[in-house]
Design goal:
This protein has helices at residues 7-13, 33-43, 65-79, 92-106, 119-124, 135-138, 141-150, 164-170, 173-185, 205-212, 222-232, 273-281, and strands spanning 23-27, 48-53, 86-89, 112-113, 129-133, 156-160, 193-196, 217-219, 252-258, 261-263, 265-266, 288-289. It is α/β, with parallel strands linked by helices. It has a six-stranded mixed sheet with strand order 4-3-1-2-9-10. α8 runs antiparallel to α9 (173-185) and α9 crosses α10.
Amino acid sequence: MGVTPGPAAAAERQPEARASTRRVAFVDSGLGLLGYADALHSLRPDLGLVLSLDPDNMPYGPRTPDEVRTLILASARATLPHAPDAIVVACNTASVHGLGALRAELEPDVPVIGTVPAIRPAAATGGPVAVWSTAATTSSDYLRGLIDAFAADVETYAVAALGLAEAIEAGDAQLVDECIAYAASQTPAGVRSLVLGCTHYGLVVDRIVAALGDGVVVHDSPVAVARQTLRRIGLEPDPTADVAGAERAEGGVEAVLLSGRPAAMPASWRAYPAGERLLASAAGRHTLSS
């Protein structure tokens, strides 16, 4: 079905006069989308970003597939008045249960890009490989299927990082470190590669590396997803993105939605480097909530 507003409607619905001409929306139950939005912003600072979180209904892991599908459809639909060129589902659980429904409803007008744990590239480097994920994902047929498909010949361990996503969501630094320490204690010695199986975990990757040591290579997917998003909308990375003083169209965060409601950008996002950069990208556009 067609969902892209016409030129007049799109102009009326622009969140601000300074908004970019092209934008990408990100949907997730919580903060996991920050790392993915930040990765795209680093490759194309000119793109506008719409961030749609669902705090009323998170976490999605314990919910039924039908519930997840309904919730992620609602989060994606809430972004449509901002006329996104693409929507990124920055959540593994929502990608598993909702990607098909989203694509059936929105494509080809609005491309939909999902996320998947980076098991294939981790397995390609040889094992042993550990996959940290939520308790629900660790015991899921979904994760077992990925391991069977991409790491059948590699020694692979599924490790439940109990409470880590919730600690990251709460911004509780001490609890984050405790959860990382627990997951590290459950990770077999000799593991060479670690796959982050929850989009939240990349927000504290520096702490994870510190807990496991430099001998373990961490595999995450925000940059790969950002590049795929650009391919789907016919763009290339900006070669001047990292050049100081380069002139470019203004992009960054244009709108934040919390369970479909327009909201200020939470100042608590500063707890994470990706959140800090996204807040900076929106400087002057939004007031911050406490």
